[in-house]
From TrEMBL:
Protein name: Helix-turn-helix protein
Provenance organism: Pseudoalteromonas luteoviolacea (strain 2ta16)
Database matches in SUPFAM superfamilies: lambda repressor-like DNA-binding domains
Molecular function (Gene Ontology), one example: DNA binding
Length: 88
C-alpha cells in the first residue's frame, strides 16, 4: 500500500509538471487557449485547454502530441519562459 501511495504521488507530480509545460508551450508559441483549441483535432474548447493546463483534466496523449506539433515544440527546443516553483 505504501508503494502504491508513493507511485500515485509521483504520477500526480509528473502530471502537474506536464500541465505547466503545456501552458508554457502554448504561451511560447503565441496562441491563446481558444486559438490552440481550434487547431486540435477534434477541436476543444477554451475551458478544456484551461482544465488541462491547471491539471484538472488528463490530456489525452494524442492531443498532447498535437499540441507539441501545432506549437512547433521539439525535444531540442528550449522554452523562452522559465518554470517557477510557485506554479506547482
Amino acid at each position: 500500500m505504501k508503494d502504491q501511495n508513493h507511485q500515485a504521488g509521483i504520477l500526480k507530480t509528473l502530471w502537474k509538471e506536464l500541465a505547466v509545460a503545456v501552458k508554457l508551450i502554448r504561451e511560447d508559441s503565441g496562441y491563446s487557449k481558444s486559438e490552440l483549441g481550434k487547431k486540435l483535432v477534434p477541436s476543444v474548447s477554451e475551458e478544456t485547454i484551461s482544465a488541462w493546463e491547471e491539471g484538472h483534466e488528463l490530456i489525452p496523449i494524442y492531443q498532447l502530441l498535437l499540441i507539441c506539433f501545432v506549437c512547433g515544440f521539439t525535444s531540442g527546443k528550449e522554452s523562452q519562459t522559465t518554470i517557477k516553483k510557485s506554479a506547482y
